[in-house]
């Protein structure tokens, strides 16, 4: 029996494939390489010493997706494939609604057809949207989302809830990631966005390696101790291990978990830690706030600990060291 990983060549998917394979699972990957490179597959093979069946196509193509289910004995699916750039989603909402929703609905229809009803879905802290307190717990209702990207995740969560209501033999685990960063300790896989990075850590890496001149820190007048925004950063290997636990331990039914460290860290704190552990300087300047950024949010991760036995093992220093190690290796 095998696990199908959609988007398995991407940042989080590739690290999850490694952890799944290291735990003795057979893994099949589908990815259209829209936001990833084929070299990642070779590197996953190097890290694990295992081979993987890989399909390269867009999962919005339902007929092709069916072929995977015809050709393999799949017992569960982890669904990472999707577009994820918040800013781009504001400019190109149709592209985001189309890819994220159609790919997911196709996948669910094909799974239903082949009677495979175990799914882990990549959701996001973005579904909490605007809340009254910064600490996000699964007990809270989804809030008003601040981008089309976040809305796609909230809509998919709703679709999954409706699907489960219609047929409670599905086992669906929704994982809400906070801010995934870091890289595999081998330095062979990590986050490698196309073009100029939008997210903080990839941008820091480009400045530290001299490929970009200066990091713009968006706002230093937020109501936080040092004036910069606070987020909950999680090492991607911890996150990947959370998926293995979700497959193994999540109770039957539909369950939602935050995957995060539970610790809020400011932009400036992350930059300073990066400089300290890697013994280098990151040139930065403060600029205006970025539209849509919330001042502060972090997770309550206790549900994942209580029910899946999972918590983060790596700290901010590990994150900064591993991210830099990957960047130097590229
Ligand atoms: P990523 O872009 O690195 O990986 C996604 C992969 O899916 C890419 O390799 C891309 O080529 C592939 N893909 C996209 N659309 C596809 C399609 N229609 N058919 C086949 N393949 C397709 O992103 P990531 O950071 O690894 O994120 C994985 C998932 O986690 C996404 O759903 C994302 O929205 C979610 N998520 C990410 C973050 C984050 O900050 N990285 C935070 C919360 C949630
Ligand atoms: N930031 C900078 N300069 C940069 C990039 C980011 O100062 O060049 C700041 C942002 O203003 C923010 C923090 O760094 O305060 C983190 O920003 P990221 O873009 O790295 O991440 P976000 O918190 O905006 O978004 C992340 C994921 C989304 C997800 C969201 C959940 O990238 O996929 O968390 O709310 F939806």
Give a verbal description of the structure.
It is a single chain. The chain is α/β, with parallel strands linked by helices. It has eleven helices and 15 strands. It has helices spanning 11-22, 39-48, 62-71, 86-91, 93-113, 148-166, 200-208, 236-249, 267-278, 302-308, 316-329; strands spanning 2-6, 26-30, 53-55, 74-79, 118-124, 135-136, 171-177, 179-181, 215-218, 230-231, 233-235, 254-259, 265-266, 284-287, 298-299. The strands form five sheets. A seven-stranded parallel beta sheet has the order 3-2-1-4-5-7-12, sandwiched between helices. A two-stranded parallel ribbon has the order 6-15. It has a two-stranded parallel ribbon with strand order 8-11. Helix 1 links the parallel strand 1 (2-6) and strand 2 (26-30). The model has no long low-confidence stretch (mean pLDDT 97).
Write the layout of secondary structure elements.
Elements: E1 2-6, H1 11-22, E2 26-30, H2 39-48, E3 53-55, H3 62-71, E4 74-79, H4 86-91, H5 93-113, E5 118-124, E6 135-136, H6 148-166, E7 171-177, E8 179-181, H7 200-208, E9 215-218, E10 230-231, E11 233-235, H8 236-249, E12 254-259, E13 265-266, H9 267-278, E14 284-287, E15 298-299, H10 302-308, H11 316-329
Bound molecules: nicotinamide-adenine-dinucleotide and uridine-5'-diphosphate-4-deoxy-4-fluoro-alpha-D-galactose.
Question: What tags apply to this protein structure?
Answer:
single chain; 330 residues; alpha/beta; two-stranded parallel sheet; 11 helices; 15 strands; globular; binds nicotinamide-adenine-dinucleotide; binds uridine-5'-diphosphate-4-deoxy-4-fluoro-alpha-D-galactose
């Amino acid at each position: 029996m095998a696990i199908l990983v959609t988007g398995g060549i991407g940042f989080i998917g590739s690290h999850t494939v490694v952890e799944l394979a290291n735990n003795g699972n057979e893994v099949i990957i589908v990815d259209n390489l829209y936001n990833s490179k084929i070299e990642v597959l070779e590197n996953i093979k190097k890290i694990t010493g295992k081979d993987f069946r890989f399909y390269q196509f867009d999962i919005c193509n339902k007929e092709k997706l069916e072929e995977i289910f015809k050709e393999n004995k799949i017992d569960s699916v982890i669904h990472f494939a999707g577009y994820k750039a918040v800013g781009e989603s504001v400019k190109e909402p149709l592209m985001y609604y189309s890819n994220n929703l159609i790919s997911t609905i196709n996948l669910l229809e094909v799974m239903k057809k082949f009677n495979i009803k175990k799914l882990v879905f990549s959701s996001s802290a973005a579904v909490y949207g605007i809340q009254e307190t910064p600490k996000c717990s699964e007990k809270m209702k989804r809030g008003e989302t601040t981008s089309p990207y976040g809305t796609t995740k909230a809509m998919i969560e709703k679709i999954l809830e409706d699907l489960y209501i219609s047929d409670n033999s599905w086992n669906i685990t929704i994982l809400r990631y906070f801010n995934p960063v870091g890289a595999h300790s081998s330095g062979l896989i990590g986050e490698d966005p196309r073009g100029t990075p939008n997210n903080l850590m990839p941008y820091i890496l480009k400045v530290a390696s001299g490929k970009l001149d200066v990091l713009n820190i968006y706002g230093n007048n937020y109501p936080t101790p040092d004036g910069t925004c606070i987020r909950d950063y999680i090492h991607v290997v911890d996150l990947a291990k959370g998926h293995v636990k979700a497959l193994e331990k999540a109770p039957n039914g539909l369950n939602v978990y935050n995957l995060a460290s539970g610790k809020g860290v400011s932009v400036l704190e992350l930059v300073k830690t990066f400089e300290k552990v890697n013994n280098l300087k990151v040139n930065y300047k403060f600029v205006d706030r970025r539209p849509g950024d919330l001042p502060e949010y972090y997770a309550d991760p206790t549900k994942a600990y209580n029910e899946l036995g999972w918590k983060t093992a790596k700290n901010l220093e590990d994150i900064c060291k591993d991210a830099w190690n990957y960047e130097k290796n590229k």
